[in-house]
Specification:
With 344 residues, the protein is mostly helical. α4 runs parallel beside α13 and α10 packs antiparallel against α11.
């Protein structure tokens, strides 16, 4: 008789659960089933909710940030590329450029896909959200090419250009017509002397703040009902980014004296409970936590970022965590300023 390992059990459980959820969705009874489950299921102890990580690093840690990261051969995910996109995203004085922001998500999606098919289900959902914003940006660029620019559509880029002076590694280049291209100097061993040119976006979707402003003026954002606006989609990505940031932070931490290194599965589940979980229904939370059971061991993460031990893993992941923190804080401030942190 063959004994099933924990990963096999988790995979079977998730397949059964997904079939179960799908059947309830098709029958239109998911909401009622969820209420009945909630009545009969004991509630977990309320986790400590994390809304932002304020971690700028010590002086010595910031010094190590200058050490270039190399490529990891034979895999799609590259931590050096993720870091270069994250560092390219902030724009003065307090904005975030959407193209490197979405490119950062492309690398994070590869990171999640590398963790196996169970977590890959989550990455597919995130990939769909980045596609929504990209499609909105493409549509906007096409509209701008077809008709004269209007004053309101131009304001997003003007906001950024007016504050671009003084940033040595970021600039806006004029191109013929109403579009703009961004050239960013990337960092890392694989990108020395390289300028990465992102594909053109329309002016309205050049940055987080320009997108917010134009969608508010056009009435695209609905504060009462769900829409496929860029702002609502950004909020979902924003929440997921905090979950991944906290997971990576926990994964890079060293245990206290005499304590054991906790498993990635345990750390990911805890990070989820402290961030994304309180935005999800009971059934979604249980499905996500089952998926985390299938996470690989810590040695896999060593190989994924090309290190050999926990100390080196901490150095690499802490750099990523701090870079995510800068992007997250700027996005948080923009969404909060326009009262968008609770869009339906």
């Amino acid at each position: 008789m063959v004994t099933m390992g924990i990963k096999t059990k988790a995979a079977v459980a998730i397949v059964i659960l997904l079939v179960f959820l799908g059947s309830m969705w098709l029958q239109g009874g998911l909401e009622n089933q969820w209420r009945s489950c909630m009545k009969g299921f004991p509630q977990d102890q309320e986790p400590v909710i994390v809304t932002i990580l304020n971690d700028t690093g010590t002086d010595s840690e910031r010094d190590t940030d200058r050490v270039p990261l190399g490529k990891c051969p034979g895999q799609d995910f590259q931590v050096s590329r993720l870091l270069s996109y994250l560092l390219a995203a902030p724009a003065p004085p307090s904005d975030v450029l959407l193209q490197p922001y979405l490119s950062s998500w492309d690398e994070l999606i590869k990171f999640m896909e590398a963790l196996g098919p169970m977590v890959g289900i989550i990455s597919q959902e995130i990939d769909g959200k980045t596609s929504i914003i990209r499609q909105l940006a493409r549509n906007d660029a096409e509209r701008q090419m077809e008709r004269p620019q209007e004053e309101e559509v131009r304001e997003g880029e003007e906001h950024i250009r007016a504050n671009a002076d003084g940033r040595r590694d970021w600039k806006v280049e004029e191109r013929p017509g109403p579009q703009t291209a961004i050239a960013v100097k990337t960092e890392g061993k694989d990108a020395v002397g390289e300028e990465r040119h992102f594909a053109d976006f329309g002016e309205s979707y050049l940055s987080v703040r320009s997108m917010i402003q134009v969608e508010l003026r056009r009435g695209t954002v609905d504060f009462a009902e769900q829409t496929d606006s860029g702002c609502r989609t950004l909020l979902r990505l924003h929440r997921a980014l905090l979950w991944l940031q906290l997971f990576l932070k926990k994964l890079g931490e060293k245990p206290a004296a005499g304590a054991r290194l906790r498993s990635p599965s345990e750390l990911c589940r805890e990070a989820y409970q402290q961030t994304l979980a309180h935005h999800h229904s009971w059934l979604v939370r249980r499905a996500a936590e089952l998926a985390f059971l299938a996470l690989p061991d810590r040695g896999f993460f060593f190989r994924l970022v090309c290190v050999h031990n926990q100390d080196d893993l901490a150095l690499v992941l802490n750099r990523v965590v701090r870079a995510i923190g800068e992007v997250y804080q700027r996005t948080q401030n923009a969404l909060e300023e326009y009262s968008m942190l609770n869009l339906p």
